[in-house]
Amino acid sequence: MALGTAKAGFCHRMVIDWDHNAAQTLRRNQRDRRKFVRHWEIIEGDVAAHDFRQYAPDVEFVCGGPPCQPFSLGGKHMGQNDTRNMFPQAVRAVREIAPKAFIFENVKGLLRRNFANYYSYIIHQLRYPTVTRRGDEDWTEHLARLERTHTSGRTPDLRYHVVYRLLNAADYGVPQRRERVLIVGIRSDLPIEFSFPAPTHEEDALLYAKWVSQDYWDRHRIPAAERPPLPSNLINRVRGLQALYPKMMLKPWRTVRDAIADLPPLNDGEESPDIANHYLNPGARAYAGHNGSPYDEPAKALKAGDHGVPGGENTLRFDDGTIRYFTVRECARLQTFPDDWTLEGSWTECMRQLGNAVPVTLAEVVAKQLATTILAGTLAAQGPRRPVTLSVGSSRSVRG
Q1: Which residues, listed in sequence order, are joined to residue 211 by a DSSP beta bridge?
Q2: Lowest-pLDDT range, 84-88, 160-164, 181-185, 255-259?
Q3: Residue 240: HSE in the Cβ half-sphere, 13 Å Cα cutoff
Q4: Contact in structure between 323 and 298 (CB atoms under 8 Å)
Q5: 41 or 376, greater pLDDT
Q6: Each residue of 47-72: b (16+ CB within 10 Å) or e?
Q7: Among candidates 126, 135, 129, 128, which has minimal Cα distance to 151?
Q8: Contact predicate 394/356, CB 8 Å
Q9: Is 244 in the same domain as 376?
């Protein structure tokens, strides 16, 4: 999230993360003088103990990823009762800094029916961050008071227009089917209009490139005799595409092959001497329902378990049914990190960082849309100015 928003034009004042290995990765790339990260103040610590008031009024933008585990489909589903729930700290950061805008992200599981009321609570808190919880209130009572504020027409001094949407990273050029909830807020006193960016890539265009024009296979120099047959369940769909496309076509979804085909192949246990984090961990196995990502489709969402890579996940499946783990570098490619970005920690810890990360490109696309609207709404009054921002990582757990 921090790297993607920096690529979108925001200049980070501070980046905070609880996880030691994530902080070490930031420090490593700062020492290596990688683009964007060179001047960040990097803090390894608990966001709940951090005083955000020191950044007001200079910081104009707050972004972050509260830990996803409380709401993840693969977690314990404890939601608001999970000690790793850091949404209250996200709200506090907005309240204490009063930025022009913010972006927070989380997993698709946040939208599940079990969490519907709490999700409404999160949104209302972000709309009215100064309407704080009283000591004798539980969160449902606080939600009711926020709802009364919202419907009464009363206008607290600090309030935000908040929108949210479930986005699939594959629709924005990320070679991975990764769905994330993005929450964007804009301070209500600003003449700014925002909408989420339209998708730039689509599955139908990939199907057309593979099974109609054959451009996909040509581009990867796959001989005709080695190209897989059209799956029977796609025959009718592809016939329909022949009549519709390439008119009004977006770009094709990017596949695993698109992302990693140029990396040198490795044997189990082998490490590349020239490419950082390119090591092939042995021992990959398939499990029922967890049989790896097909080579010629976007990858399945990368996972990060509490005790390492979950069984059958973060693996690549070839047409002959064989599977292997992705290397850390390959996962970095699937998450659209630049090749000069180095991950610190063991193989397990690097995979955990990547499995919990927001795809860089997805963060960049949404943040660029927001940066454009902020500048358009304030340029006339303030003149050209590069927004100063604050990026808040996870606390108590690696973020999702």
Answers
A1: none
A2: 84-88
A3: 6
A4: no
A5: 41
A6: beebebeebeeebbbbbbbbbbbbbb
A7: 128
A8: yes
A9: no
Q: Is residue 298 part of a domain?
A: no
| DSSP of 30-58 | HHTT-TTTTT-EEEES-GGG--GGGGTTT
> How much is the pLDDT for 19?
92
Q: For residue 295, with 0-12 CB atoms within 10 Å meaning exposed, 13-18 middle and 19 or more buried, which class applies?
A: middle
Query: Position 305: which residue type?
Result: G
Residue 35's pLDDT band (boundaries 50, 70, 90)? very high
Question: Rounded to two decimals, what is the model's pTM?
Answer: 0.90
Quote the strand ranges of the chain, DSSP E: 11-17, 41-44, 61-64, 101-107, 160-168, 179-187, 201-202, 251-252, 293-294, 315-317, 323-325, 388-392
What single string gives the DSSP state of each residue in 350-376? HHHHHHTSPPHHHHHHHHHHHHHHHHH
Helix axes 347-355, 20-31, angle to 10 degrees: 90
Which one, of 280, 282, 316, 281, lies nearest residue 299 by Cα?
Answer: 316
Query: How do beta strands 41-44 and 388-392 pair?
Result: unpaired
Domain presence at residue 243: yes
HSE value, Cβ hemisphere, 13 Å, CA-based, for 224: 2
Contact 280, 330 (CB under 8 A): no
159 and 54, same structural domain? yes
Helix (H, G, I), strand (E, B) or coil at 98: coil
State whether residue 82 is helix, strand or coil.
coil
63 in any annotated domain: yes
Tell me, yes or no, whether 184 and 227 share the same domain. no
Contact 210, 219 (CB under 8 A): no
| Element spanning 149, H or E | helix 139-152
**pLDDT score of 289 more than 80:** no
Q: Which amino acid is at 114?
A: N
Give the pLDDT of residue 115: 80
**Among 101-115, 210-224, 344-358, which stretch is predicted with the lowest mean pLDDT?**
101-115
Residue 14 is part of which domain span?
Answer: 2-197+358-392
